[in-house]
Amino acid sequence: xxxxxxxxxxxxxxxxxxxxxxxxxxxxxxxxxxxxxxxxxxxxxxxxxxxxxxxxxxxxxxxxxxxxxxxxxxxxxxxxxxxxxxxxxxxxxxxxxxxxxxxxxxxxxxxxxxxxxxxxxxxxxxxxxxxxxxxxxxxxxxxxxxxxxxxxxxxxxxxxxxxxxxxxxxxxxxxxxxxxxxxxxxxxxxxxxxxxxxxxxxxxxxxxxxxxxxxxxxxxxxxxxxxxxxxxxxxxxxxxxxxxxxxxxxxxxxxxxxxxxxxxxxxxxxxxxxxxxxxxxxxxxxxxxxxxxxxxxxxxxxxxxxxxxxxxxxxxxxxxxxxxxxxxxxxxxxxxxxxxxxxxxxxxxxxxxxxxxxxxxxxxxxxxxxxxxxx
Length: 375
Known about the structure:
The chain has four helices and 23 strands. By secondary structure, it is α+β, with helices and mostly antiparallel strands. The strands form five sheets. A six-stranded antiparallel β-barrel has the order 3-12-15-14-13-16. Strands 2, 17, 18, 19 and 22 form a five-stranded antiparallel beta sheet that branches. Strands 4-11-9-6 form a four-stranded antiparallel beta sheet, with no helix packed on it.
């Protein structure tokens, strides 16, 4: 007797059961259907068992139906749990420089792309009037100093009155303060860089009027960059300052490793996200306003069991995968119920499998427990 005979007998048995149930009342049909399904499952198992026994007893004659599959051996590996989002590169120091005093630009000392240091003059506003006033004051100060020195010598010799000495002193010191004030005003007519960096934009032009608050230059310090991104509030308890971050800048064609340096404490009402900042390592080709993808790693498993996410099937409310097992000289499929712990980067961390098992990665659709496999 072979597997075909058993199969036919199974079909006859099912037909007989259906005939016996045809006379049942409508109220009993649901119960009868469930009973028939259970019997069908049992008959299928018996057929599969008989096929296996026949295959063992007559290995040269039996023809076993197999399904072509591909498998991969499960290995325990490090697995990162992370949140992925997109962000934008920003400079910590990206300064719009404007004049401190109104006036007309007389000279521009720098070009775009030029390196500048803190306090370096970028442009000069017309200061001719102030310079003339300073020169005039200096002449008056020379006279005031001469008078003061004479009055002091006389006062030291107890000659003259104290009032004359104090008047000479006050006049000299007053002129010194006025000159200092004019020199400060003169310095305010020089537009200076507030930081060390690179001139990113020159807005001011010779002969053009400028005033406080009007951008004249933009200076950027590209050696101190960060990436700012928004993260879903679902991860508010996971993402913390100091978390490892993998930054991918498409234009650089490589990944940069860094850490979270700032985590916002406020949730945006519209986007339901919070702000995260990541310090970027020094990189010559990094530019402000570049876009990048960040993966914030908030948990790592050193020895996790992972499988491709696509092999995990949801059947009757259970998460299952199929593994290939040896059964004598044959290989059969075995259904394994698993629990998914996390899904990241196309892989799922699961429990319910052990290292060394061979998970079916191709041909798993429609596979049944105990079905013969051809790898």
